Each structure stands twice: as structure tokens, then as C-alpha cells.
Amino acid sequence: MTAVRTVLGDLAGADLGVTNSHDHLFFRSALLPGQELDDVAAAEAELRGFADLGGRTVVQWTPFGLGRRAEALPELSRATGVTVVAATGLHRAAHYAPGLVDRVRDRLADLFVGELTKGVLAGDDPDGAVLPFRAGLIKIAGAFHDLDAHARHVLVAAAEAHHSTGAPISVHLEHGTAPLDVLHVLHDSLGVPPQRIILGHLNRSPDLMVHRQVADTGAWLAFDGPSRANHATDWRLPESLVALVAAGHGGQVLLGGDTTTAQARAATGGGPGMRFLLTTLRPRLGHDLGEDQVTRFLVDNPARAFAVDWR
């Protein structure tokens, strides 16, 4: 059955509504000490702020081992009325505490498949209890302008898990780079259909030619992390999306917020948070592209990107 796998069960893609296609309710990285997203009440406040503006679904890309607080996700979804999709997968090695990656390196595909078909592991423990809900996507990562040995190893495991389950694969592109390298490995070498690959952070490297090359393969293009002044985000985003729509690729674009630190939350941290996607980005893009096209980015495209034929 074609469905989106959420923390409250499988759901038809058409039921997602307005979707934040890449964000984080909980996140802990060795590269961001002291900036953890680990407060359940703050996560609830952020979801309520998003819901108050018409937001209906948040896809959390936090993978295994980075403080997902998976046990809190179902109750947060029930309390706020916001659908939540959880991720399995593995990020760049630099994000992890020493030793954790080594514990799972040789069983990644089994770990991913287990979280997609049996249940997400509690406490980010590879030998921990299995929670009574399943992940809905595999989150992995490339490297800066290349694919290092860690990235290639994880890509192989993600492809194996995809072929076993049908799950979509979302990819953190480091500073938006190397999307074609990722596609070469996942699709050309490992046989993952481009329609099941979601490439994140393309806004951070606003190379219109590369965007067009990626789109021509049929992959999904995620533009996420708005309002980050140190990246080429808001001020270049309309140009990138106008070009993709003009080339006939408006049906492949996803939008997300990618909140990764407590300070970036709108509800409790003073940052743009999830609200920014609807309060600022949506009307801005609507001015340049029309409301129908922006609705396509926020509603129609996620309904197809995250709904798969589960095996």
C-alpha cells in the first residue's frame, strides 16, 4: 500500500496537508555542544506555533544516534495535531560521540530496516528497546564536494534498506555540494530510483546549472534552512525556484526549515523556527511564483515524495 509512515501509523499522502519537509524537533551533535534540541516542552511549543499557521506535518530528519527523543514523538503528535514522520539513518561521522559509529558500522542496513519495519530504537541505543512505531525515511549524508569513505559506506547501507522496504532516502548535502556524486552512487551504481531520493540543502549552493542537472534525473530537491544569513538562502531562493519552475521542475521541489539549535526556535529561542516557513517564506515565494505553485511545494509535492509502496 502506498502510504506515508508516521509516528502514529501509516497515512495517505493526501492527508499530510501543509508540510515542513525537513526539520528537527530533537537534535544533538558533537559539532554543536551546548546547542542541543532536547526540550520536549519547547518542541511542543514549536509544533503548536506551526499548527496555528496552518502547518499540518513535520518530517523530522534526525537520524539514529543524534538525540532523536523518539519516545516523545507520538505524544507530541497527538497533543498538537501535527503529523510527525521520524527518520532512521546515519549522519556524517563528525556529528557523533566517539565510538557510536563503530558500534553500528557493520550492521547499518539491518538497523535501518529494523527501524523502518519493526520499530524505532529507544534512546538511540543499537541494542535498546524497540518502540511501537516505525520510521518513515532514511536520512544519510554526503561530504563537502565529495563522498568520503564513511559517506559511501552509509549510502550502500541506505540503498540496501531502500530495496528491502521501499523507504525514501533523504540526503544531507554538506553546504549543498556533491548532489550529482550522491545520485551517481545511489542511482547509477546501487539502483535506487531517483524518485525515492530527496536531496537536502540545495539552497546552500545556489548553482542553477547543478540544480537543473539534478532535477533532470527526477530526484526531489529540498530547499531548507531559510533565514540563515550565513548561507545563500532567502535572497537567492526565489531565483533558484523560479528557474526550476520555468524548466518544468516545480513538481520536484520541497521546502523545509531545518531548525538544528535551541536558539533557532521561534517559540522559545528567538530564532526563525518553523513559523518562518509560513509567515515569511510562503508569501515571498507566492509573490514571485503564485500561490498555486507554492501550495504545490508545501502540499502536493510532499504527498508524493514521502508516500511509498512499503515492502
UniProtKB/TrEMBL annotation:
SUPFAM superfamilies: Metallo-dependent hydrolases. Zn(2+) 1 binds at residues 22, 24, 139, 258. It comes from the Bacteria. Binds 2 divalent metal cations per subunit. GO terms for molecular function: hydrolase activity; zinc ion binding. Zn(2+) 2 binds at residues 139, 172, 201. Belongs to the metallo-dependent hydrolases superfamily. Phosphotriesterase family. This is Phosphotriesterase. It comes from Solihabitans fulvus.
